[in-house]
Amino acid sequence: SDDEDKAKKVTVRFEKPETERSRKALEKSYGFLLRQIKEEPWIEVNYHKYGSEYSEFEHRKLYCMYEDEHVDQFNLSPQDYLNQLVPPTEEVKMLTPGLPSHLMCRSGLKSLDLHEHVKTAMINAGVASFTELIEVLERGNSVDFVLSVLKVLQQVAVLVQGNWVVKSELIYPKESKSESGVSNDLVQRGRDFVLYLFTKNTSVIRSEVAEMVRLPGADIKDILSGVSTHSTERGIWEFLLPTDHAFLKKYPEVFQRQQMIWQSRSEQLSHIFTEKIKQEDAKASVSSSRKSHSRASNIDDILSNQKHPVPAKQRKGNVAEQS
């Protein structure tokens, strides 16, 4: 037809080559993003609630342990690794929840300096052998450490039968009183008197102790229970631990030094008890004066180097016969 034969006017344009810069600019345009959204096909979604069996099953797929997974070895020293597990406390609190006021947790003890550690350990133990104490401290057993412990130990404890007993002033402070209302200064003297008797013998007689120290029965029992056990068959109190001959043999200079300390303390106690009897004698009648003189003589007998304790009644009888 005539219409088909007519020529059509066509405008030809040549597109410029696309550069990397122009392509990135096009991808950032809003029209390009909108076209991508329209062209994206829809996907059917099956919703499973959290906690359902299927969701838990799919969730477990997120965790995987490869058989060939390589784990680097620790590069920490044993002490550093322990500090990572149990960080040291910045401040040591003497009162730990759930423990008595005089006790501490083990981590708290280890953070103390050596003097306080030994002191606290002896207060808690009361009586301990040197070997047991080294094990309790858990700081090794090198020669330097053992000598350091031995030096500190002589400041907070006394030697009795080769074992160490905490000093009386640490468990009976002077500013306090006993449960019976007696000044702790008097209780200290009574306890030191008992400990001195145990340095001479492995057993003591309670009536003999009571006659000299003149303390309430509850205080005397508390002192004896802390360092000895009662033998009902023999009627005596026996020292808590057997004599540690190995320690006495290994550290003779410490033994000699402690003997000198006990000798000096026994002289002090003898003087104090004798003066006390004299004061009682001055207030008593003439008939009770002879009884006080008998007790004063008993002090010298007990504090002498006798190897076996003599019951008080027997000594009284001997004095009566001599008089």
Automatic annotation (TrEMBL):
Pfam families noted in UniProt: RPC5
GO cellular component: RNA polymerase III complex
Origin superkingdom: Eukaryota
A single GO BP: tRNA transcription by RNA polymerase III
InterPro entries cross-referenced by the UniProt entry: RNA_pol_III_Rpc5
TM ranges: none
Keyword list, A-Z: DNA-directed RNA polymerase, Transcription
The keyword Lyase belongs to this UniProt entry's keyword annotation: no
Stretches the record annotates as Disordered: 279-323
Protein name in the entry: DNA-directed RNA polymerase III subunit RPC5
Source organism per UniProt: Halocaridina rubra
